Amino acid sequence: MNNHSLRWNVLEKKKVKDIVAVLLKNRGIKLPKGKKEFFNPIEPEKLKLKDLGIKFPAIDKVVQRIKKALKTKEKVIVYGDYDADGICGTAILWEALYALGLNVLPYIPERFSEGYGLNVETISKLKSQSSNLGLIITVDHGIVANKKVDTASKLGIDVIITDHHLPGKAKPKSLATIHTMSIGGAAIAWVLAREIGKKLKIKNYQLKIANSLELAAIGTIADQITLTGPNRSFAKYGLKALNRTKRSGLLALFEEAAIKPGTIGPYEIGFMIAPRLNATGRLTHAIDSLRLLCVKDKARARQLALLLGRTNTQRQKIVNEVVLHAKEKLKEEPKEGIIVLAHESYHEGVIGLAAAKLVEEFYRPAIILSKKGEISKASARSIAGFNIVEAIRKLEDLYLEGGGHPMAAGFSIETVKIEKFTRRINEVAAPILTDEILSRSLRIDLNLHFNQLNQGLIDIIQSFQPTGLGNPTPTFATRKVNVLDARVVGRDNSHLKLKLEEGGVVFDAIAFGLGEYRLRLSPDKKIDIAYTLEENFFNGYKALQLKIKDIKIG
């Protein structure tokens, strides 16, 4: 990432006494109740349905239908999505319903032949295989699957939808819909499992639900959901559970990925665990990731963990190939508006990741399409301030089906309509994509002097964990800093190790990826720095260290 064009957005420019109050205000937390719950989140077991935006009558309908299924011994399918959030949610709900004694199986569609969400042919096939199939419960999808729900109804199958995506204009005619956009798919599955347990009062069932909290955390963090409010509860308590998990599959995955239990945070989920769980759904079949989460046998767990690791390595290679090809094509394309690229060689399973990499590099929304005969599949990623799913929905006459979030979406389209779509989406985007939205900015909480940086502030920062979307790691700026020493480090000299002084106080600092600044720094030039604070443990000693995000030379 090129940092040179970073615009610094300092949220609090005035001198402040109460740093904590400013950090909370910058995260939209102003009321005493919100502050209390931020530092001591309510345990997920105690979260109220109304605070989650879940309607009690819908839960009641689900419980009644589960009771009926228990009585009739009919077949029930938990029909999940093939991403980490959907896989984790499917595992949570399937384990919970199986513990109740239900005749239940999990089902994850195969991305390439069945596509996202419910599939008409799949529903018919499942019914023909089990004539006593009477209930399908979706996890992490279904809120726009109107026609597919109608198909299931005609076959005598009730559908319960659990989803957190943006709904369409008309709601599906499901038996019950558990829909909220305040938490993710896995968290909704966990809450539903919790509520079923409360109503049916099954012995040891609540313990089973508590044991799946780590999966709700993986789903929440992997899906890049804002880590404030109830999501903070799932992330915080779920991470505690994840660090002491007894699940054979997760322990094997930690070993394969060289992750040390006890040190797992949002980074490990976002960059090590989730990519492995997602890789099978992108290249082969996500059922293997589901098996890993639920497996009991240690030898089988190791086999599955190695498979996920290999698949992830393969996935990385394919993404790099798509990105290289896309960047070559971009040389011939106009350099404004939304990046829209389509090609036969683009692997359908990784186009979303390729789009994300292009957004990172060019800081423009990107839509990558995998051309496959008459119908092409598209995946979109966006930048802050541009709602990509809203823009796509304005062109409903052009695409076949799709959905998503403000920052990420997917859809299918007739290949012949791609050119027209490209032109029209850029017409929609043009007035919104202003120079300000298209300039990369660094969010800084406030300006501080070095004499304000101490162990007390580090303790405060640690109480903001887990950090992520909506609750970023507190970031500070200090102006007119003297450079006492600067040297490049790392295998390719791409990082900077610094000794900095301001107001008579000296700190060590590390600046990853900013090695090129070395030749521009000198003792007679003062610099402005944006940074986060961390503790550096070295040879048994603990010291504060600045982790530099950007440098501006005076």
Give a topology summary:
Blueprint: E1 7-12, H1 19-26, H2 32-39, H3 49-52, H4 56-72, E2 75-79, H5 84-100, E3 103-107, H6 111-114, H7 120-129, E4 133-138, H8 146-154, E5 158-163, E6 176-179, H9 185-200, H10 205-210, H11 213-222, H12 230-243, H13 248-256, H14 266-283, H15 287-294, H16 298-330, E7 339-343, H17 351-362, E8 366-370, E9 375-381, H18 388-393, E10 399-404, E11 408-414, H19 418-429, E12 441-447, H20 455-462, E13 476-489, E14 495-502, E15 505-511, E16 527-538, E17 541-553
Helix pairs in contact: 4-9, 5-9, 5-11, 5-15, 9-11, 11-12, 11-14, 13-15, 13-16, 14-15, 14-16, 15-16, 16-17
Quick description:
Helices cover 41% and strands 22% of the residues. It has helices at 19-26, 32-39, 49-52, 56-72, 84-100, 111-114, 120-129, 146-154, 185-200, 205-210, 213-222, 230-243, 248-256, 266-283, 287-294, 298-330, 351-362, 388-393, 418-429, 455-462; strands at residues 7-12, 75-79, 103-107, 133-138, 158-163, 176-179, 339-343, 366-370, 375-381, 399-404, 408-414, 441-447, 476-489, 495-502, 505-511, 527-538, 541-553. The strands form 3 sheets. A 5-stranded mixed beta barrel has the order 13-14-15-17-16. Strands 3-2-4-5-6 form a 5-stranded parallel beta sheet, sandwiched between helices.
